[in-house]
Design goal:
mainly alpha, Four Helix Bundle (Hemerythrin (Met), subunit A), 5 helices
Length: 112
């Protein structure tokens, strides 16, 4: 995706939350640094079956992308958190994590 498409996408999202395009892109870029770490922590927690870390990390990811109006990333993070709250199966959580990873990588490619 080129700069024009990136800016058009980001402009639409920044307009939703009444923020300048420059500020939106800066926040998104900063968020990716933390989210890269969070995605790794989530993957490690899934391997260990650490439900507390899974819940906390997915909650943080959900909040960031919900605020940025990046719905697909937020949706899968929220589903992971809900599965943990509902004592969902680890396989279901892992399936949602794969979807979260895919959507996260897509949006990161668009906005970087």
């Amino acid at each position: 995706m080129g700069k024009e498409e990136r800016d058009a996408y980001a402009k639409a999202k920044s307009d939703e939350i009444r923020m300048s395009l420059e500020t939106y892109l800066k926040i998104a870029s900063t968020s990716f640094v933390q989210s890269d770490s969070d995605m790794l922590a989530l993957e490690t927690a899934l391997a260990k079956g650490d439900s507390l870390v899974i819940k906390d990390t997915s909650h943080r990811i959900n909040g960031v992308y919900l605020n940025l109006r990046i719905d697909n990333v937020s949706k899968y993070a929220q589903e992971i958190e809900q599965l943990v709250n509902d004592d969902g199966s680890l396989d279901a959580i892992k399936d949602n994590f794969k979807k979260l990873q895919e959507e996260y990588e897509k949006i990161k490619a668009v906005l970087q």
